[in-house]
Design goal:
- By secondary structure, the chain is α+β, with helices and mostly antiparallel strands.
- The protein is built from twelve helices and 14 strands.
- The strands form four sheets. A five-stranded antiparallel β-sheet has the order 4-5-10-6-7. Strands 11-12-13-14 form a four-stranded antiparallel β-sheet.
């Protein structure tokens, strides 16, 4: 399918140049990093920008940096780069889990995590781990910089807190200071390239503090705060897990679409939460867990 309209293209070599272009064109410009969502949307006529601002030549957009208890991931860092990072595998294993579930190897070699959260589709895989790692989204404009907590980023399906004159420069994750176990579980219709029917991220610390988030189960990804509250401060046991599972219906608001019915999403979410809690605890205890193997037998 060819493009349905003409547009201009710019490839700035500095952040200052990029944000100046965005300021000049505002909502008529779109930022191009990987382009795996943007180009599809343009081909289907869902977006008709007058200008594409390609940020791949802006050096800082490709960097990883560790400072002041945070890991910074630039806006042009691809999912493949995240998967290949030994530091992320060791320190943020749940983020690596999620990155491996995004589309296909070909898509992951171009798609970026910043682009993923900017698309703001309800099923985006990177959001639940970012909630659990207390992420912050960094934005820049000609007026200065702005930091947005991930909990304030998603406003509605395909709508974020990003302003028309801003560009996302990167995402920071809080480096865990306590021993923890974390896992991301994604259920799709088949093995391979598919959007999530349901996604759950579970994070548990040695002092029994929990962070839990989900995607594809509400209008936007979010934390499961009621479930966290009933779990916090308590060691896992069968009775506590059943109490948490009983709250799933109050935490999510699934819909029926081409990938699943709302009834199925509600059912499998209870199973996924239970298995995810046990898997996160196993990782906390030093056991080797393969998330992709945890969802066998779900019906």
């Amino acid at each position: 399918m060819s493009m349905a309209h003409e547009f201009n293209y710019a490839r700035p070599t500095s952040l200052a140049e990029a944000i100046k272009l965005k300021d000049q064109h505002r909502d008529k410009a779109r930022v191009l990093a990987g382009g795996t969502d943007l180009i599809v949307n343009m081909k289907e006529g869902m977006m008709r920008p007058e200008l594409l601002i390609d940020i791949k030549d802006v050096p800082d957009m490709h960097r990883f940096a560790v400072a002041e208890g945070k890991l910074f991931i630039g806006a042009a860092v691809t999912f493949c780069a995240i998967i290949d990072s030994a530091y992320i595998q060791a320190t943020f294993p749940m983020l690596s889990d999620a990155a491996k579930t995004v589309a296909s190897t070909g898509v992951r070699s171009r798609a970026t995590m910043a682009g993923n959260i900017c698309s703001a589709v309800p099923s985006l895989d990177s959001a639940p781990p970012l909630f659990c790692y207390n992420a912050t989204v960094h934005c820049a404009s000609v007026s200065g910089t702005r930091d947005i907590p991930i909990g304030e980023w998603f406003l509605a399906p395909r709508k974020t807190a990003l302003q028309d004159d801003e560009i996302v420069t990167g995402i920071s994750l809080t480096i865990p200071q306590e021993r923890n176990g974390a896992v991301y579980l994604k259920l799709g219709r088949y093995g391979g390239e598919d959007l999530a029917q349901a996604g759950w991220a579970i994070y548990v610390t040695a002092s029994n503090q929990y962070r839990i988030a989900h995607c594809a189960l509400s209008a936007a990804p979010k934390r499961a705060q009621q479930i966290e509250q009933i779990l916090n401060g308590k060691p896992l046991c069968p009775e506590l897990i059943e109490q948490a599972v009983a709250l799933v219906a109050q935490e999510i608001s699934p819909i029926t679409d081409i990938r699943s019915s709302k009834e199925y999403r509600l059912h499998v979410s209870g199973v996924m939460l239970k298995r995810g809690l046990l898997a996160a605890k196993d990782r906390l205890d030093g056991k080797c867990i393969e998330p992709a193997k945890l969802l066998g037998g779900i019906a």
